[in-house]
Amino acid sequence: MNAFSAPGLATIPAHLRFLDEIAARWTAGVEEDPERIGDGTLVLPGRRAARALTEAFLRQADGRAILLPRIIPIGGLDEAETALASPDALLLPPAVPPMRRLAILTRLVLQAETAFGTRPMLDQAWPLARALADLMDEAERSGIDLAETLPDAVDENFATHWQATLRFLSIITRVWPDWLREEGMMNPVARQIALLDAQANYWAHQVDGTARLWAVGFTDALPSTVNALRGVLLHPHGRLIVPGLDREMDDETFATLPDGHPQAGLSRLLASLDSRRDDVETWASVLSDDENRSVLAARTHTIARALLPAAALSDWAANSERGECAGLYRLASADQQEEAAAIALILRAGIEQKNKRVALVTPDRALAGRVAAELARWGILADDSAGELLITTPAAVLLRLLAQAVDQNLAPVALLALLKHPLVACGMSSGTARASARLLERRLLRGPAPAPGIEGLRRHLEEKQKMEGASLDGASADRPDEPQPLDLFLTAIERCLAPALESAREERTLPEQLTALLKAAEALTTTDDTPGAEKLWRGEDGNALGRRFSDLLTATDVLPPQPWAVLDGLLAAVFTEERVQSRRALRGRGETTITLHPRVFIWGLTEARLQTVDLMVLGGLVEGVWPPATDPGPWLSRPMRARVGLPSPEQAIGQAAHDFASCLSSAAEIVLSTPGRREGAPAVPARWLVRLDAFLAGRGQQLVEHPAQSWLSQIDRPVGAAQPVVAPEPRPAVNKRPRRLSVTEIETWMRDPYAIYAKHVLNLRPLDPLEQSVDASDYGMLVHGALDAWFQKHGAEWPRDPETSLRKAFLDSLDAASLRPALASWWRPRLLRIADWVAQAEAGRRQSASPRAILTEAKGRATIADTPGGPFTLTGRADRIDLFDDGKMALLDYKTGTVPSTKEVIAGWSPQLPLEAAMLTLGAFPEATKHFSTDESSNSEVGELIYWRLTGGAEPGSETVVKSKEISLAELAQQAWESLRQRVIAYDSKAQPYLSHPHPGKPPRFADYAQLARVTEWSTAREEGGE
């Protein structure tokens, strides 16, 4: 019996290479006349399967030239051919363009605001329109007329919001059909189904046809597909060949399979064709080179028994034969990254064998990306058939960043994200543009945000130039690329963004807004030698983006005028709907080109169907991923879907289960991979793995663990014994060490010498945050400024109404800061409480003795001359110095945060005030010295060291007086000075390192250089080493 004269229904067992068997059978049917191989048509479920069958024919030809038969996906039937076969096809209205359909539906959603109680923005309405279109498509594929069935979906038992939802759905049951009739168009899916019906009718009535017609690889029973398959079976030489039909399950179980079972789709398909399994012929293999056939057959039998539905689990007890799991491995990883690294190792090891083909199959795109990145470590570029989302391509990212920057009126974070995009050049070379963007960041955008817009940036630049001069501090960091002067760079940015900034000023039609966005994007990406359009739209991803953007531009003229703010959300919704096969990863540096590895594949579930390789890793086998979470959709609950007649969400589980079972029979070696945690949360292994483990455990068996985890640990393990690494101990030359520090830096020098090294030797400064918010340091500056202004005005004189004048000084300081109103309102009562407390505290101080003079923000400078490295200068700025007639002096320091304890001051860990006292005694504050005669100066001494803690809280202020029974203030000052002298002498030795946080329990108040010094890492190492 020839292959094509067999009964119309056939199946190829799951353990055979389905597409290779199809190609071999097709070829074997015309052995006597090889030229007839090209006669006939093969219809497949999808485009990927059609390409894979083409490759199978080429393998069958083994290098010989052949004329292939027509191989088409069922959704890609030739409309012209269908029209010739069925004149009725010519009468079909055209399909509404997909983007136009979404735009019209979006307009209808915007008009249906009463269904939600609020008016949605366009970027919110577009995804709702997409969901409506998906519901229409699903209903049409399922043969459901929503206009008839939706009214029965809700009864009085359903909540009120479901009633409102159904009223909203009148958009697709009443308003949308009316629009289609008025425009003379059809929904795309409805038109495709009509063409399929016409083609099916043509096939069914082609009684004199001699060419073969095979439908292969179908596993489910959508009404539109079933009708086409009926037409195939009615063709004189029509065949329907399904993959992996289970012939061992009893008929009653097979007929009542739950939707989540791997064979449920095939059961529904046969039932829809009014056929039984007895009507299906099993095709034996016609290939002779499959040495793993027996192993795969035994494995397929084991998997089928392990996945039996609950109603048939009695078979487990009745039949205790062992499970055959040769070549089947488990891979348990701690998390997604470890899983990806282990899978990459497995694939890398697999291709060591000549001609061995390996694949990762997973619906988890994050895992696929991680594995691809790990493979790239070995120079392997895997063929990732799923491609990437259009929204993640560079040009699409640029368009969204541009929309965001303009919407936020060039706020620092948004502007920098745009300017640092690799495509942005602003009409200059890419290197110059990057250097200019970095300079703009350092000079203008770090710290408090400038005023909005280009004008705000210009004013900020003028202010900076007045304060700091026109130097380009830090520009050398961008060598060899020299930046543009900032005023010229701002002009270039303004020129490029002008169309978008102008359009964003008011609501405009979307085509106008999108055109302005496009002009700005092309201007931004223009270099000194290449137009922006050539960069923006090049390559597969650029072409796909250009088509999508053009469709959007054309379709959205039906929408009302919109503000610029909706563009980012709209672009995100539109660009997320499409994937693109980009070859960006193949472009190496310069003229080099990287090629895809011919034997390494990454497939999604759809791409993997009907495929075979030698080694296959099934990744991400956890609940919610594979199988996916069941989702009835945003519009209808499960009971409502059942009433309407839509497929149950579990049918998606059944398809995923079929993919899982098919993959287990598609390769000699299979690795089942599960991460222990996913996205930070514990992961639950896929239900099929749990079933398989339970089945094997009942027979005293378990799957073999794959050694990839051991390989992974060996890669990370150093050769030989691990050698402890000593933390860095920088020892710069003595002439490079600082010879001048402030009194506040001395405490830092004691607690964190590395910070002094980084700041004064490496000349590194921490950058201010972008869009720096007003914080505690700003509050402290307000308090210091108010007290300085008040004492500068009044000095030692005591005004009649000190509370009022102090309050005014604090409010003037607050007003001068130009804070946002909410923060000013929050700080105002706190500052007034501080003013009242200072007035009371100062009145109390003056009851005992009134000062001769009060100095604020007094500058001092003292030198330690007798040190090996040369003179060392100590500078200081005292918050307040009180001078008294008896030669006594008092030092006051204002704190709005934590005040050092007296114990720390006495012990020398907080030496600021003692050092200032020593400087004052040495005459290092000229303003203080001039208030005393020569005799008075020789007899003067510091009598008080005081901290004022000024918070303005429940306790507005408090005073801490430094004193000790064991040591006088004069001795404390001398001790601090001598300690500083000894420290300078110690660091004048090349052998003295600048250690980071050398004293546990005495950390610095501000750890600006902790990340640079890797403090956390070295601290962990010390703890693990028991130090």
Automatic annotation (TrEMBL):
It holds the Pfam family PDDEXK_1. Residues 740-990 form the PD-(D/E)XK endonuclease-like domain. This is Double-strand break repair protein AddB.
